[in-house]
Design brief:
The chain is of the alpha+beta class. The chain is globular and about 40 Å long. Strands 1-2-3-4 form a 4-stranded antiparallel β-sheet, with no helix packed on it. It has a 4-stranded antiparallel β-sheet with strand order 7-8-9-10, covered by helices on one side. The longest helix has 15 residues, at 2-16. It has 2 helices and 10 strands. The protein has helices spanning 2-16, 30-33, and strands spanning 63-68, 74-78, 83-86, 92-95, 98-99, 105-106, 109-114, 120-125, 128-133, 139-144. The two termini are 28 Å apart.
Length: 147
């Protein structure tokens, strides 16, 4: 499932990068390409509870995605679109961007992913894909996606 979501995200990004001479965009039908599973045992080795450190009274609510990072930490996204990096023990490391309309900010987060090497966090949001450094949360660049 994780591989399918990653593939769909990559296809969406690649399709957005095509030049004007390329008119064909692949049609994606993710519901027909996925399967429902009832048993996670073949896919999950273990489950560990990690309490997350709260910062500045800003509490994460209803986590929608958790990405493990190469350094043993993880990046989480909540239902409001807040994206935060924690170390393996749940200690706050950094925020990844923030909501807004300025440079390096995003509106209406749709999904997050890590680059293949794990050094960048890709944030798919209304209007584009913003890329941040995984270690520091520093904004690197944005690729616009036309509406």
């Amino acid at each position: 499932m994780k591989e399918i979501i990653h593939l769909l995200f990559c296809l969406a990004v690649c399709a957005s990068c095509s030049g004007p001479e390329e008119a064909s965009v692949p049609v994606l039908a993710p519901l027909t390409e996925t399967r429902q599973i009832k048993e996670l045992t073949p896919y999950v080795e273990s489950v560990t509870f990690v309490p997350l450190e709260e910062t500045d009274g800003d509490i994460l609510i209803y986590l929608t995605k958790v990405l493990p990072t190469p350094d043993g930490g993880f990046i989480v996204r909540d239902v409001r679109g807040k994206i935060v990096k924690y170390d393996a023990g749940g200690k706050f490391v950094c925020a990844i961007g923030r909501k807004g309309r300025g440079n390096g900010e995003y509106l209406s987060v749709r999904d997050i992913a890590l680059s293949e090497d794990g050094k960048s966090v890709l944030v798919l949001h209304l209007g584009g894909v913003s890329v941040y450094e995984t270690a520091t949360g520093k904004f690197l660049h944005k690729t616009e996606i036309p509406q």
